[in-house]
């Protein structure tokens, strides 16, 4: 979304140098923001060959606390989750006020619902790292679970609006935009 925004915003600029300069600044900003997150990343642990059963929210003594890098990621994930949740509210309000879902693509919401369901399930079904408890794993992934499964709930509300308002379109909305 951001790349489309910057593409169309800078595409209309009169100066030929503004787009490359702004892209360079955006790239530099992205590198400065992500470099502290990548500094502490070590080699990945080898995946376990044995499938372990899950005990939901089990707590093991000696669970490791959040590192600085994980705290930064958790905060960024939480902000992302809140923005993702709030992104559906304007559409829900607009549909409610108009009592119509005219112009809204249901296939978009159906595919997003499928994607969020699969993403939430993938996080829930993944085994924690070696030495990490189930509760610690869920806590570390909580923003992404809330984001994907919370938006799934809001998209379900939009689906219900599609069912409620499918025959309630006003006469102005049923008329074609261009007369032939």
Essential attributes:
single chain; 180 residues; mainly alpha; Monooxygenase; 8 helices; 64% helix; flat
Structure description:
This protein is mostly helical. It has two domains: 1-32, no CATH class; 69-168, Up-down Bundle (Monooxygenase), CATH 1.20.1280. The chain has helices at 2-11, 18-39, 68-86, 89-98, 106-125, 134-140, 142-164, 171-174. The protein is flat.
SSE diagram, text form:
Layout: H1 2-11, H2 18-39, H3 68-86, H4 89-98, H5 106-125, H6 134-140, H7 142-164, H8 171-174
Helix pairs in contact: 1-2, 3-7, 4-7, 5-7
User: Average pLDDT value?
Assistant: 76
Q: And the CATH topology of the largest domain? A: Monooxygenase
Largest sheet: none
Kindly state the percentage of residues in helix.
55-70%
**What are the segments in which pLDDT stays under 50 over at least 5 consecutive residues?**
none
Q: In the CATH hierarchy, what is the architecture of the largest domain at level 2?
A: Up-down Bundle
β-strand percent reads under 5%
Radius of gyration: 22 Å
